Amino acid sequence: MNFKRIQWIFFFAFLLFDVIIASSLLVENRFIVTNNQTGRSSIILKEMKDDSISYGKLESGHQNGYYLSGYRSAEDGQLDNAAVRLHGQETHFSNNTLTSEFSEPLNINIETPNVRLNELIHNTHQVALGKHYRYNPYLSTKRVIVYTQIVEGWPVMNGDGQIRFRVNSNHEVTGYTQTFLEGVKILRPESSTISQKRAVVWLYKHNQIPNNSRIRWVQLGYSRLLSTNTDNRNVYIPTWVAEIKTKNSGAVDRISINAFNSTIMKDITTSVNTEALNRK
Question: What sequence ranges are listed for the domain Regulatory protein YycH-like (predicted)?
């Protein structure tokens, strides 16, 4: 065996050794970081309980989502055109919203309203585009049953894609209002979101959860982030929405947090260029 060949054997042996050591250190560092984050979260969750903040099980797994663009269906759009097939109700379309009044009220079980309403929304002569919506118990009350439009696997959490069934004192559905998000486009590749647990911890750290309160639910869905100057489109992102009830006063608030970067969402819209966002 010549000397040069021996040199190459030693070179590759040392290279392989360096790769193994580097990989081990990387895994160890990630393990330490993960453990530190888990430890900090546990400490903060204990602080929350000490502050009389109650909550249910919080998931620590990450989800995936997109930056999306779309626009609320307007006159002569998909929703307005589909509504011409509806029977047994009086409808009118105004301000990008379809309003319906049933000719005869619909009886429901107020404890399980989705059993009857699921049949209704899948009947194209009763509800337009109903196959795109699912029952959302978190947003529903005894007087308003909410179905949210599902886009890329998650519900639309603001008013741009919802059916809101009106319920009277006799537990009868008398009609509904409906909005629909159409022309949905993916602006950026799929990305990982923060976990449900991380969202709650972040809200507490930034004084968004008052003492002596209860976190009633935390749900992931798409919310409007920005209004754009391109074809009247809006930008939507995955958002953790938490509903919090103060135990003393009974006041209920909903707080939203950007599921990509943990930013607390404010009710402010800014005009941006969708095409520029798509290039980033």
Answer: 39-260
* Secondary element (H or E) of residue 214: strand 213-228
Do 228 and 234 form a contact (C-beta atoms < 8 A)? Answer: yes
Alpha-carbon distance of 256 to 280, in angstroms, equals 24
64, 191 Cβ separation under 8 angstroms: yes
Q: Per-residue pLDDT tens for 245-254?
A: 999 888 999 9
Cβ(241)–Cβ(223) below 8 Å: yes
Q: 240 has which bridge partners?
A: 220, 257
pLDDT at 226: 81
Q: pLDDT confidence of 267, banded at 50, 70, 90?
A: low
CB-CB contact of 244 with 215 (8 Å): yes
45-67+187-279 and 72-182 agree in CATH topology: no
The residue behind tokens 């609320």 is 72
Q: What is the distance between the alpha carbons of residues 44 and 28, in angstroms, rounded to a whole number?
A: 24
- Provide the 3-class DSSP secondary structure of residue 230: coil
Residue type, 268: I
Give the closest residue to 163 by CA, choosing from 126, 134, 184: 134
Distance CA 51, CA 54 (A): 9
Spatial separation of the C-alpha atoms in residues 162 and 196, rounded to whole Å:
23
Residues in the chain: 280
Tally Cβ neighbours within 10 Å of residue 93. Answer: 18
Domain 72-182 -> CATH class: alpha beta
pLDDT at 42: 83
C-alpha 101/C-alpha 166 separation (Å) is 9
Rounded-to-10 torsion of CA 258, 264, 270, 275? -20
pTM for this entry:
0.81
Q: In the chain, what are the domain boundaries? A: 45-67+187-279, 72-182
